[in-house]
Amino acid sequence: MTKSDLILRLAERLNNPALGLNAQVVQRDCEVSVRLLLDAMMRSLIRGDRIEIRGFGTFSVNVRPPRVGRNPKSGQEVAVPAKRVPHFKPGKDLRLRVNQ
Any idea where the domains of the chain sit in the sequence? Predict the structure, then answer.
């Protein structure tokens, strides 16, 4: 699913009278909401904070230490610097639903 797909599904779901929802939400409002949510999550991860969404999972930042790698073409050793990488660990509910 892409960000555009997420925005479309959110707008459809919020405007679905069959679900008891008739919020009259414009797709542009959903786009702004999704963008704000993702921006807030990125800022938290940049600060090194951990994000926990119960039932879904946990986002955190892992630190990879510097190491010596190899150029696969020439076999020459290359110094790979330390870096911080985002990490996602799925929650129990998500794991159970995916495995059904």
Answer: 1-47
Residue 22, token pair as written in the block:
């008739």
Q: Beta strand pairing status for 77-80 and 67-70?
A: antiparallel
Model pTM above 0.85: no
Look-up of token digits 């704000």: 36
Length of the chain: 100
Q: 60-97 pLDDT, tens per residue?
A: 999 999 999 999 999 999 999 999 999 999 999 999 99
* Phi, psi at 50, each rounded to 5°: -105, 140
Instruction: Record the tokens describing residue 91, joined without a space.
Output: 């929650």
